[in-house]
Amino acid sequence: MPELFGMDAYAPREIAARVVEVGVGKARLPPLTLALLGALAGAFIGLGAMMFTLVASDAALGFAASRLLGGLAFSLGLVLVVVAGAELFTGNNLIAMAWAAGRVSTAQLLRQWGLACAANFVGALGLALLVWLSGQAAFNGGAVGRAAVSIALAKTALPWHEAFVRGVLCNVLVCMAVWMAIAGRSVVDKVVAVVFPVTAFVAAGFEHSVANMYLLPLAMLLGAPITVGELAGNLLTVIAGNVVGGSVLVAGVYWVIYLRGSAER
Fold first, then answer.
1. Tell me: the pLDDT tens digits for 140-171?
2. Among 26, 116, 138, 152, which residue's CB has the most CB atoms within a 10 Å radius?
3. Residue 6 — φ and ψ, nearest 5°?
């Protein structure tokens, strides 16, 4: 069909090419720019997690309604990342496609991921501190704070293999959300592309490492009996799962489908 006012979405093969070009640009960002955009992304995802916690604190909602509404509220985080612009480690797992295509070196890939992840943690931790200082945990008769602690304790209680697999499944959906957002040409396109996959992963209880960078420290500030070792163990396990889900099951699969044989190595 002919293009209608420039509003038609990019086709999947075109998305693959755009993901590669976007990945090259991300891999070449100056360190300070990457660090600041990464801190913003951590704070943005933290805001989504904060909204999820508010919904989860309402005991009047049934289980399914609470999960779905909470997931919808959480999607604020990725909408901010995609539309306002920020460097989110989980979404940046798609840079693996540019690496597989020979456009990004291994050192550039690991540098981007490492700095983005560290900056995401700083942004998420900073927001957790601000939310704690704001006294928001006292809302709804203290139910908001209790919900935050309960959510965090449930995450640290997960067996490592469950946390890993939930991390895999989470980032399949997050990277599909980013993939589809790249297909859009307008803000509305991008928001619609993000909302459904993000709502799905949150409702299903999957694990997002950057969200955990906000939720676990906030619960610790609120007095939850979570040790630094438990925090690190959860984050490292979920990060590993997120990498597999995003870089292998999304970027890797689409590279094989659309770009295999075009690598510049």
1. 999 999 999 999 999 999 999 999 999 999 99
2. 116
3. 70, 20
